[in-house]
Amino acid sequence: MKSICVYCGSNLGGKPVYAERAAALGERIAREGWALVYGGGNVGLMGKAADAALAAGGEVIGVIPEQLVDWEVAHKGVTRLEVVANMHERKMRMFDLADAFVALPGGFGTLDEMFEMLTWRQLGIGDKPCAFLDVDGFYAPLLQMIDRMVAERFLHPEQRADLWHGDDIDRMLEWMRGYAPAVASKWIDEKRRNALR
Predict the structure, then answer these.
(1) What distance in Å separates the CA atoms of residue 149 and residue 10, rounded to the nearest whole number?
(2) Which has the least CB within 10 A, 91, 107, 135, 178?
(3) Domain ranges of the chain
(4) pLDDT per residue over 61-83, tens digit each?
(5) Pick the CATH number of 3-196 from 1.20.1260.10, 3.40.50.450, 3.30.1360.10, 3.40.50.300
(6) Does the reported pTM lie above 0.85?
(7) Which residues of 10-26 are buried (b: 16+ CB within 10 A; e: fewer)?
(8) 113-159: per-residue pLDDT in tens?
């Protein structure tokens, strides 16, 4: 593994622990010798993660759409800042650059980016590990919803098990190092399942 993409809020959120964990993750990625790939902003949790990685001597690659550069939120101090035309190009470029994906607390954009990676993996477009770093129980309700998707037969149990979540950075990185993608069709086909019995 050479790089980890971190999705997170462009705001700091309502609890200091969110910023603390974003900084801890950024620093840890740098100390492991990996590059931090992220959304290129200098604000919110994004800025905290990037600044911590830079302070620890790490490589930080930001990928930011032109619109956000125009809004003056681009981080000019990162190792490399790539400016792309739109959000679609941003997600594709971050996918190309990263070997794994982590979601810290965030809003619509964070979920959009992470769920697109999960969908691509489900469809066989990629096989890179995805994890929710669950700071102070932030993602607990979302994981309950994902478990309901499994219970209601919209998601394979194997694909649910293929998604890591927890609050321990060490355990998350250990899981990523040994990651082997689940092998399961996207579709839950009762006729096919019965035929195979």
Answers:
(1) 28
(2) 178
(3) 3-196
(4) 999 999 998 887 999 999 999 99
(5) 3.40.50.450
(6) yes
(7) bebbeeeebbebbbbbb
(8) 999 999 998 888 888 999 999 999 999 999 999 999 999 999 989 88
